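Thread amino acids onto this structure.
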């Protein structure tokens, strides 16, 4: 199994994520439209690619008073260790962490009432296979929630501009397809194609307000940043961070990045009857 999704600087990444709330507001939105602000059912939640727990911690806190539970899986042992620290400091007894490759979900059919993939599906090699697996482990009528930054967003625009300024060539669309699940319509189509019903898409935006240095340290070791960087000819790669900084400083000369970042949230339901949907993708 792959560990070290984030080889370098993981602690800084997670600290920035928590201090500046870069991911948690989107996770809050994803929960609001699925389990609800005040859930009235003791859901069994699976958080696929949970990372340090931006979604898991909130879900477990919401579900604790009514007996719901959260199973958080990730292929990175270090991510799970950081999540465990947070879990125990918050004394959340209803959250379990499991080291597991999401490409091979080791759960029975019909196990969970809600399955989330918050900003993780994009890192899987066979996305459709995983979405079918999400369907398999859900109970009939259960909900699948998938979040992604869309193709068009301010951060990707900065990275692409840096590639253009360094090479004088417009980057290919392929990069965005690697680092994003696409726009709402793409996520909705994928959910439908994988057997979900009542698929809807929600768009939500939050402000990222932080010193430029903090932003660059947050992103420079991130696989998304590294993907953009890897599309550069080798001779330009070491200048990528400096070029990104130059562009950001032009936009925000006072040294504080202030961007409204949009996220798309796909929501689908497992059909209540078997119908034409193959519940076991392995059969
Ligand atoms: C961008 S982080 C998202 C973490 C978290 N859901 C959040 O919103 O903060 C992506 C996560 O997916 C995990 N991941 C990537 N490939 C995986 C795999 N094959 N199985 C399980 N987790 C995986 C990474 O380890 C990482 O923690």
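Threaded sequence (283 positions):
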């Amino acid at each position: 199994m792959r560990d070290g999704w984030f080889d370098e600087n993981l602690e800084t990444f997670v600290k920035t994520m928590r201090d500046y709330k870069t991911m948690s507001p989107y996770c809050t939105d994803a929960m609001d439209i699925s389990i609800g602000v005040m859930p009235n059912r003791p859901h069994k939640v699976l958080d696929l690619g949970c990372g340090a727990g931006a979604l898991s911690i909130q879900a477990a806190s919401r579900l604790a008073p009514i007996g719901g539970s959260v199973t958080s899986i990730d292929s990175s042992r270090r991510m799970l260790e950081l999540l465990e620290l947070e879990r125990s400091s918050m004394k959340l007894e209803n959250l379990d962490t499991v080291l597991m490759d999401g490409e091979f979900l080791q759960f029975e059919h019909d196990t969970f009432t809600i399955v989330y993939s918050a900003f993780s599906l994009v890192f899987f090699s066979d996305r459709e296979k995983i979405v079918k697996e999400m369907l398999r482990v859900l109970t009939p009528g259960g909900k699948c929630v998938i979040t992604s930054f869309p193709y068009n967003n301010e951060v990707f625009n900065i990275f692409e501009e840096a590639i253009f300024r360094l090479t004088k060539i417009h980057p290919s669309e392929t990069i965005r397809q690697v680092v994003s699940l696409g726009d709402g319509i793409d996520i909705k189509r994928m959910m439908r194609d994988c057997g979900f019903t009542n698929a809807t898409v929600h768009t939500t935006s939050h402000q990222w307000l932080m010193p430029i240095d903090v932003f660059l340290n947050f992103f420079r070791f991130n696989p998304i940043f590294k993907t953009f960087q890897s599309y550069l000819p080798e001779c330009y790669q070491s200048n990528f961070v400096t070029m990104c900084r130059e562009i950001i400083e032009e936009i925000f000369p006072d040294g504080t990045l202030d961007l409204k970042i949009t996220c798309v949230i796909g929501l689908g339901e497992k059909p209540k009857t078997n119908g034409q949907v193959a519940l076991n993708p392995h059969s």
